[in-house]
Design goal:
By secondary structure, the protein is α+β, with helices and mostly antiparallel strands. It is built from ten helices and eight strands. The strands form two sheets. The chain has a five-stranded antiparallel beta sheet, with helices on one face. Strands 4-3-6 form a three-stranded antiparallel beta sheet, with no helix packed on it.
Length: 298
Amino acid sequence: MPNTAALNDLVARLPQPLHQLFGRTPAPLVLPSNIVCFQRTRASELNKPRRGRALHHRFVLMFALRTSATVCIDDRDVRLRAGEGLLVFPFQFHHYAKPAREAISWLFVTFELAEAEPLAALRYRPFELNARLRMLAAELIEAYETQRTDDLPVLLLALLLARLRRVRGPAHPVVAAPVPEQGLVMRINQIAQRGGGSSPGVREIAQSLGISPSHLRARFRASCGVSIGRHLRRLRLEQACGLLRLGPQRVSEIAELCGFSSIYSFSRAFRMSYGVSPLAYRHSGRAAPVVRRRRKVR
């Protein structure tokens, strides 16, 4: 960060404006919203709140302050070393593996953003936590803890994201251990989110990929460890979460857009996954996933 002497030098280099009433016009500003900051101190906590691969409509910005681990995103393994950070995008299947040790110090900042395109260059790309980023992160956490209802945390996160777009990535490879099905999840997610008022099923996706439905089911389970039907259902629910938080549509319209046959089936599936109704989630935006025990079949 510039010190006093550096600031004086920078000020001395400023030119005299030709027109003092006409300055630089900023580009349209897209601000993050619904920010949540938290930490993980043990590697066994990284995959919480639920076991397996997470999938949601929010951005996940992580900082590995101490201890390295592998972040498995879609079909790629990204080794995140101590002193590095990474941004996971909405609807990216991800989990954590191969921590260097159990004791860790990782900072997480999750948020929602209407436009993802300005951050596209950060996809799958770890970045170095330089002094400037660390200072901004510290200011963000301090503002988050002391000024919860103020706009300062939002502005600081927006500034942090703007800085991230200008940071060079580390020298080590981004993909640590590519798997045979590289790109499969990404292609499935893209097909499933094309829109058009309907949500494609396994048969339609398989046809788009040029393979049989049974082959697609087998390949997806081998690559991701879960069934493709469960993945598509979770994808539809997380898409609904984003629409409930950011969209103007009614709950019945969101149910139809996300491929549910009725508002009743949508509400039942949503409550089973998140513990609240879609309307309650829209009003609060703070619903946490719950794990429900299956009833025994007599």
